[in-house]
From TrEMBL:
UniProt record similarity statement: Belongs to the troponin I family.
Cited function: Troponin I is the inhibitory subunit of troponin, the thin filament regulatory complex which confers calcium-sensitivity to striated muscle actomyosin ATPase activity.
Alphabetical keyword list: Acetylation, Actin-binding, Coiled coil, Muscle protein
Coiled coil: 8-60
Gene: Tnni1
Molecular function via GO: actin binding
Name of the protein described by the UniProt record: Troponin I, fast skeletal muscle
Bilayer-crossing regions: none
The organism of origin for this protein: Tachuris rubrigastra
Oligomeric form and interacting partners: Binds to actin and tropomyosin.
Gene3D superfamilies membership: 1.20.5.350, 6.10.250.180
GO cellular component terms listed in the entry, alphabetical order: troponin complex
InterPro entries: Troponin, Troponin_I, Troponin_sf
Superkingdom: Eukaryota
């Protein structure tokens, strides 16, 4: 907590220093503007001068921004070239290593591990049931079914069969 308090104090002091440096720089660069007692033509000339200065500063800002964008693109291209020159790194094939639970616990816990663990002893045994033997398969004569369902009687039977489960 003491270190955090000291860091916060230094950070606050740095902010104050930056602000004072900014004010000092602006006071050096920017002269106070005296417009009192000037005629209309003198004010217009002053405005023209200010516009010219603003245009010059804006052109400089644009040039610097273009240079910065160009440099960032060039840095990206160089990074890509460096990666290409390095070549692709092939990962070596990993081998499977069989480790028992006891060896794993010994590696993790060190000499503290003295109890051997048999994980398979606690598993439940499950019987596989034959569900196919229990299902009765009904085999009938398909011709009888087709003859019974043909015509209007068959459709009525189908309608009644579909209607009866919902009716109950």
């Amino acid at each position: 907590s003491l270190m955090l308090a000291k860091a916060k104090e230094e950070w606050d002091q740095e902010i104050v220093d930056k602000q004072s440096e900014k004010e000092r720089y602006l006071s050096e660069r920017i002269t106070p503007l005296h417009t009192s007692g000037l005629s209309l033509s003198q004010l217009q000339d002053l405005c023209r001068e200010l516009h010219e200065k603003v245009e010059i500063v804006d052109e400089e800002r644009y040039d610097i921004e273009a240079k910065c964008n160009h440099n960032t693109r060039e840095i990206k291209d160089l990074k890509i070239k460096v990666l290409d020159l390095r070549g692709k790194f092939k990962r070596p094939p990993l081998r499977r290593v069989r480790v028992s639970a006891d060896a794993m616990l010994r590696a993790l816990l060190g000499s503290k591990h003295k109890v051997s663990m048999d994980l398979r002893a606690n598993l439940k045994s499950v019987k596989k049931e034959d569900t196919e033997k229990e299902r009765p398969v009904e085999v009938g004569d398909w011709r009888k079914n087709v003859e019974a369902m043909s015509g209007m009687e068959g459709r009525k039977k189908m309608f009644d069969a579909a209607k009866s489960p919902t009716g109950q």
